Amino acid sequence: MKNTAGVTISNLIVDATNNNARCSGELTGVSFHNASGTVSRNQLTIESAIQCNGYGLLAFSDNQQPQTVVVQNSDFRNNGYSSLAGVGTGLALNALNKFVTGGDNSQSGSAGIVYFSDAIGAAQGNTVTNESEVYGAPGAALSNSTAIAADCASATVTGNGITASQLGVYVGCTVSGHTGRSSTVTQNKILYTKIGDGIYVASAGNSITKNTVVASASSGIHLDTALGGINTPCREAVSPRRALAFSPAEQAARTLCRRILSTMSTFQPRRVQPCAPIF
Question: Is 0.90 surpassed by the pTM of this model?
Fold first, then answer.
């Protein structure tokens, strides 16, 4: 859907299991581009046999006009990169009462429900499980597969059940020019994180209250003062010696910068405008 309003999608099954795509594009089940609407009672499975990036549903705005997408009572299974993603200024994405599970082709840095680049919205009453990288070595905190993430965005994350993910909830922003974005994380139940924290807070201004975290592999709630104080510009020039001296937190922040810039600069598959080389 593009440049339209009032779209309703219901009772739709999208199943791209074992499609053998050759990563010529990011596989996407449903796309809202500068559009608004409601998605309910659907099942989306976007899986590639060779681990391409993919989205179950991608909603994005690049015209800065208000758009609202509501996704409710739907199943998202085994999506390659992100089951549900909202990106861009003007976009409000509300994810309500959904079941989201990772699976055979989860990417490093994948997320069940993710808000990027000044998007806003609510993730409420969802069950998110098994967002776990299943190949390659696990990375630093921000590159872990995450159940719900608000990266330089404002989201209310409430009443969700999260199990068996690498990282439970990530909120914060370390990219220059995205000040003033904050999120509320409350009344979530997070059980068993495989590598990272229950809740990872990367910058100031967020509200974290009344959550239950059990059997976290690292901290229950991690307030990362190292990342919170960086406000890292993506395009900084770095000498070879300085690059070799990056801390894990700085490396993770730069990885996130690249992912956000890549998403904001394209909104079309595989046309990536990366940050300037660091070496």
Answer: no
